[in-house]
Design brief:
The protein is an alpha+beta fold. Helix content is 49%, strand content 15%. It contains 13 helices and 11 strands. The protein has helices spanning 5-16, 20-28, 54-68, 86-91, 107-110, 113-124, 130-138, 159-165, 168-180, 199-215, 254-268, 274-290, 294-310, and strands at residues 34-40, 46-52, 98-103, 141-142, 151-152, 184-188, 191-196, 229-232, 237-239, 242-244, 250-251. The strands form 4 sheets. It has a 4-stranded antiparallel beta sheet, with helices on one face. Strands 9-10-11 form a 3-stranded antiparallel beta sheet. The protein has a two-stranded antiparallel sheet with strand order 1-2. A hairpin with a 5-residue loop joins strand 10 (242-244) and strand 11 (250-251). The radius of gyration is 23 Å and the shape is globular.
Length: 311
């Protein structure tokens, strides 16, 4: 029998030690229980993000663990998954000669409550009643203008899973087409990367993706034309912040390594506070993972520089 909403509340009440009427109130008002703030983007503009209240987070985490896990995720979706990272996403394209990058316009705000409900109905409709599906979808979105324009929020605990699964049908269609064209495809959140040995094929891929975006049932997405990039080994190729070098290796780029060397020099001179030291060694660990041997090279080069300064 499909799970009734009242039964869901009973299970949640027992696990979260909250009364059913209180849980029901939280779920019905969940889209309004968010704190919004702005963060600065690389281009200097502001991005509006939000974080759900503690009680909404608790419900969303419970739903992730107990209800939403069966939702399908295509293997090409590499973000927010155990064993996957920006490194593995970039590594998939490191041997290619030509690359196409596509970015969706306002991806998270484009995923509406109705899209989530349709997705839950398609994949969990046999396990959950319509009322249960409605209330779960309602508890996964927020109302940025405090009006019934409910959409997916970047900062919610359930958003990584939903953003990966909501495009399962699109990912599947794109992957099947790419296999037929000998093209490597990966998606990291709203960043789609395609690579191959024939640059003409990538034009066909772009056209086909546009066609698929009109065909899919949900969500309604548009390509950010300003971020569509074609690149080859002769130009700088960057995938999720990692540089693909002409000799088929991964790199964090010269600029970032110069910044870390400067920070390490200040660390040796005792000029960093505890937070800056923690940040420094977090960066070193990240670069070491991408470019093994970086830390040894860093220690050697900075020591030489320091001795010369004292001379």
């Amino acid at each position: 029998m499909p799970l009734e909403y009242q039964t869901l509340l009973e299970q949640m009440s027992e696990d979260l030690s909250l009364l059913k009427p209180h849980l029901n109130l939280i779920m019905r008002t969940a889209p309004l229980r968010y704190k919004a703030f702005f963060i600065k983007k690389k281009n200097g503009s502001q991005r509006l993000v939000a974080q759900p209240a503690r009680e909404v987070k608790a419900i969303q985490r419970w739903l992730t663990a107990n209800v939403l896990k069966p939702l399908p995720i295509h293997e090409s979706a590499s973000a927010y998954r155990t064993g996957s990272s920006i490194k593995s996403n970039a590594k998939a394209h490191v041997s290619s000669n030509y690359m196409l990058k596509i970015d969706f316009e306002k991806f998270f705000p484009s995923v509406k409550k109705r899209d989530i409900k349709d997705h839950l109905t398609k994949h969990l409709g046999n396990e959950l009643t319509p009322d249960t599906l409605e209330m779960i979808a309602h508890s996964l979105v927020w109302a940025p203008s405090r009006t019934p324009s409910f959409e997916l929020c970047i900062g919610a605990p359930t958003s990584p899973l939903i953003s990966n699964s909501i495009l399962f049908e699109l990912d599947t269609a794109i992957a099947e087409y790419c296999i037929s064209k000998s093209v490597t495809f990966s998606r990291y959140a709203d960043d789609l990367t395609f690579s191959c040995s024939n640059k003409l094929v990538l034009n066909q891929v772009l056209s086909h993706v546009r066609l698929l975006l009109h065909r899919i049932e949900y969500p309604r997405l548009a390509i950010n034309e300003h971020k569509t990039v074609f690149a080859s080994r002769r130009s700088r190729r960057c995938v999720t912040g990692i540089v693909l070098t002409p000799d088929h290796k991964l790199s964090v780029g010269r600029k970032r390594k110069r910044e870390i060397r400067a920070m390490y020099h200040h660390f040796l001179l005792g000029e960093l506070d505890s937070d800056q030291v923690e940040e420094l060694f977090g960066l070193i660990g990240f670069v070491e993972d991408i470019e093994p041997g970086f830390f040894a090279s860093l220690k050697s080069s900075v020591k030489i520089t320091t001795r010369r300064d004292h001379d």
